[in-house]
Every structure is written in structure tokens, then in C-alpha cells.
Amino acid sequence: MRSPRVPLLIAAATLLSLTLGTAAAPATPTAPAPPETGPPRTRAVHVDVLGPTVSIPPGSFANSFAECPASAPHVVGGGNRSAESASALRLTMTHPAASGGSPTPHQGWEIEAVNTDPVNAHSVTAYAVCSADPVVQRFSPGLVVSPGVAGVVAASCLPDEAVTGGGMSLGVLPGSSGPAAYIQFSTPKADGWQTGALNRDTVGSRIRAVAICSPKPHSISIDSSFTVLPPGQSGSAIAICPAGRVPSGGGTADAVLRGVFLYVSTGGLTPNGWEVHAINTTSQPQNLRAAVVCTAP
Length: 297
Hints:
Elements: E1 41-43, E2 46-56, E3 61-67, E4 74-81, E5 89-96, E6 108-115, E7 122-131, E8 136-139, E9 143-145, E10 150-156, E11 162-172, E12 181-189, E13 192-199, E14 205-214, E15 218-222, E16 227-229, E17 234-240, E18 247-252, E19 260-267, E20 273-280, E21 286-288, E22 290-295
Antiparallel strand pairs: 1-2, 2-7, 3-6, 4-7, 5-6, 8-14, 9-14, 10-13, 11-14, 12-13, 15-22, 16-21, 17-20, 18-22, 19-20
């Protein structure tokens, strides 16, 4: 069988780099629209589904789950939506899951977030991209990340499969005070999915990457310029699919430094695009790019 592995549309992209390149002119951040409500919205061969919008009190955490409809029961990608002002949120999970919360294939998308704001509540909404086409989930081994350490995990599709989306799940170990492995990046690769998280807990956290893989060709499109995140500031980046293609998943285009945290990753706000928001907690400017996985025409 001829391999449909994912071609990179921007040849200069280096998905495994832990330090981003020289910044181009800053892109203008685009704030996500307020979370939508109502029935699933059909987009070409996919269906976009939003879970409930959940308000997270200061210092607490919560989950949201978006379930795929019977007409499109296979989840091919997903993420979350929050307001631009919700930069205090820290994603700890974004992955395909079943309504009960375990990573059983193809039923929906679950996200989990911690609100680090000591005063204000912030809201989060799960977002799923669903399809009638069957897919399979491929998992990385679990990695126990020590307190204060950043860990990177990657899951790979088989040689005759193409990645459609992916994410990270989190296992809390005994003695933990709650989910505290904050996602720094979640990145499509030519052969799968890579994600990294910084463990802010006092005990180890177990992280695991998941790649959603399809026998049908897909491609990765990467934002051609960087968004510069000033110290202590947040920003956004958008990657767009070529004409005639639609997003199946997406995330960041690059691995980033340990003080940059992803807090929004979603499709459906920009036509044929995927949008990410991150905050830079370091003392130096950092760069952000988005990547979107697109269906073949």
C-alpha cells in the first residue's frame, strides 16, 4: 500500500526544535469568539462539536467533553476554546476520550484545565472534529515527569497511515494535589504527534501522547510567520489549510521553551484554519506558530 504519510507544506519548519527561529514581524493576535452553543455544525466532510462551557473557580480545575454525533462517530482531532483574557488557564489534558473520561477510541474530545488566577474564574469549552471515516489511535508509552521538570512524548502512526490530530493525557500519581503538568506545546509531526508539559506538582506526573491516524492522505500546513510573545504577555497564531481542504486537527508548529504555556487550541473560528493561544511567562520574548492538519482534496 502506498504511504499517505503527511507532507509538510512549509519545508523550513522544524517540529522537533526546542528553540524557535528568529522572529518575523509580529502577527496581530485574534481573540477567539465566545464559545458557541447549539447543535453540531457540519463543515465539509467533518462535523464540529462543542462541549459544555465550564467555569473554573480560582485555583481549581475542571473538564469539558465534546461528544461526536452518531452520524460522524469517529473523533479525528480536537482542542479547546477560551477567551483571550483566560491566559491564566493551564491545559493539563487535551485528548480523544469517551464520555466517561477514559481514552476509548472515537467517541469525543476531552480537555482539562487548571485556573492559576487567584482572583477570577475563567471558562473553557471542549472542541471536537468528528468524521464518518474510521481512524485509529496510537499511544506513546507513559512518561513519568519529575517535579519541576519538562517532559516530551511522541506517538507515531504506522508507515501507511497519516496523522489527523492528536494530544496528551495526564495521569496523577499518589500524593499529588491535583493535575499540574501544564501543556507547553501540542504539535503534529510528519509521522504522528508530539507534546510537551512542565510538571508543577510536588510529585511526579505521568504524561502520554496520542496520535489519531487515518489510512487516507492528510497534510500539515504551518503558519509562515511567527507571533512574538513579549515577556509576561499572551498572543495567538493561525494556520490555514490550502483551498479545497478542511482542518481535521491542529496545534502549535514548534516545541517551545518551558515557560511558554498553550491555553487555546481550536478550529472553527477562522475559515479553514486552526488557532492557538499561548502565554509567555519568561523574561525574554518568545515565538509562537500554529499548525493545522488538513484533509486531502
